[in-house]
Amino acid sequence: xxxxxxxxxxxxxxxxxxxxxxxxxxxxxxxxxGLAIEKVWWGGCQLRQAFRAQFLRPGATISGAxxxxxxxxxxxxxxxxxxxxxxxxxxxxxxxxxxxxxGRADLLADCNLIKIGxxxxxxxxxxxxxxxxxxxxxLTSTYSVPPQR
Amino acid sequence: xxxxxxxxxxxxxxxxxxxxxxxxxxxxxxxxxGLAIEKVWWGGCQLRQAFRAQFLRPGATISGAxxxxxxxxxxxxxxxxxxxxxxxxxxxxxxxxxxxxxGRADLLADCNLIKIGxxxxxxxxxxxxxxxxxxxxxLTSTYSVPPQR
Amino acid sequence: xxxxxxxxxxxxxxxxxxxxxxxxxxxxxxxxxGLAIEKVWWGGCQLRQAFRAQFLRPGATISGAxxxxxxxxxxxxxxxxxxxxxxxxxxxxxxxxxxxxxGRADLLADCNLIKIGxxxxxxxxxxxxxxxxxxxxxLTSTYSVPPQR
Amino acid sequence: xxxxxxxxxxxxxxxxxxxxxxxxxxxxxxxxxGLAIEKVWWGGCQLRQAFRAQFLRPGATISGAxxxxxxxxxxxxxxxxxxxxxxxxxxxxxxxxxxxxxGRADLLADCNLIKIGxxxxxxxxxxxxxxxxxxxxxLTSTYSVPPQR
Lengths: 149, 149, 149, 149
Known about the structure:
two-stranded antiparallel sheet; homotetramer; six-stranded antiparallel β-sheet; alpha+beta
């Protein structure tokens, strides 16, 4: 096997990321929010947002705000898992297309980074529910990485 | 004064909108969320999201998720104030540029609808804080209006 | 083999699409533009934009305008190949992330439709060059389908 | 008059910008394209794209590609007029909402920069026609400024 064929390990594994995020970003990463990291890999991650009635909106469907937040967190986690612990990375832009009305069930967010630069990182996220009827939403988000000291 | 010079009144006034939204969308429109309608007009609205520590993220700044939700709700309220009570209108797409790091203060969202169609409504939102140092974010969102019965 | 396992044929094949587009949209689909349909399938397509010096911009790279146009045409072709000949379908919104600086070579656009509705169609496009060093750009575009008579 | 009330002059005036762009970016800035800078100011500009039959698409309307290109060029020109001659600045992302079907007439693009950072510049563009029936399109675009040597 050649060096270039080796799959890179993520910079941070699930347990370590969850521990650090719970300390650094407890507003979102805590025991009650229902948000969890399912998997990480170099270049991506999968998050789960458990269903909560508080996320509903008229039409008995999960709000766009819930979906957008999940997608944005997915890119953040994928960024940390790939370039390492840079918690001050911030979103510069985000675009989302809502595709199908979600049901009263958990959301899964599959994120892959499509650009990993020194200054900007771009992630693409497919948000779905386990009853696979096509993605609920598709999102891209760009993060700015603070300059190195 | 000609008929065409008369400014149209909003379809629903602040108090009526707040009452209906609290009944229809209590997850977001309630006494504790800190979200309030400041003004509505035909074609737009202004919302306020009071500062809450729960909205912070690493870097002691308000999260992108909070800002995106506020912008999306602003377009929804502007739509209701303009075309009338269509609570099942749903976001089809949203784009946001984050421009400046917000401080620990309330957010104001000024929304103007830039397209009012039979099927699609598009709103533009400037999100700022009262200490005016330029907008914190700029957002556009498209809503789909359910077909009339 | 069950009915539901059969892959649907595209509504229009490459030759028929090219013929119709050359008649209906000659400004773009003609012998000189270098734009060609490589493949279509139900739900997607691949286009090629041949390199032309007229597409360059400062930095000796292909302009964003060229890339955006290609992505938008890809969603249009995928829409026609999937729902049939609806040439009056129009773009309602488009979002693009430019990821890598393209070189002086052809561009390939791989499009898959991520939503096929009665009123709106959403396509996702990866734009790359054959020397595969990661995608040059990622784009999503939403088209509105005219109401049926 | 206080120093802070003085309006900054643009870094480059119309004639100088046009001269430099014609030399540096002749593919787009030349005598035949019909693209012209109408005005520049510190923080913005107005461009005109003259009507050309080559920009039409099915439905006898101006193509989205033409409109997107105009909007992208407007942000580029506004950037140059504000931060000075940085021709290697490149678009990192762009989002456009198409609002009304344009007629067979010139397009005007009014651009204002909504963020002027050291690394990123964000512009907002309203694209309209002189027969004012509301904007034809609304666009935002982010440019990356090359690091200073």
